[in-house]
Amino acid sequence: PPNRKPHSATTMVNVPKTKKTYCKSKECKKHTLHKVTQYKKGKDSIAAQGKRRYDRKQSGYGGQTKPVFHKKAKTTKKIVLRLQCQGCKHVSQHAIKRCKHFEIGGDKKGKGTS
After folding, report:
1. Which segments of the protein form a coiled coil according to its record (predicted)?
2. Domain ranges in the chain?
3. CA 97, CA 15: separation in Å to the nearest integer?
4. pLDDT tier at 10 (50, 70, 90 boundaries)?
């Protein structure tokens, strides 16, 4: 279709704090209420093999030894929702589309307001 918008990231997404969805843990295996939070990357371990190897290679004289990535193209990240079942506490993750602004449990948009 010629009148389609160009593909781009959504400007704003507002997700409710709870969501009723399927829980696939052995205890539940049914639709239950889930608490929704945003996935956050954990702190990098200094004991990881790659980090130890990198630190060893970097030590001493000789400057930067590995390539530093500069060709960043994306302006947004895909949002990953962390869904925790309120019955059995099982955690599952659900990726949604890209967006510039994301919030959980914000004010609902009423009818007729933009």
Report:
1. none
2. 1-40+75-108
3. 12
4. confident
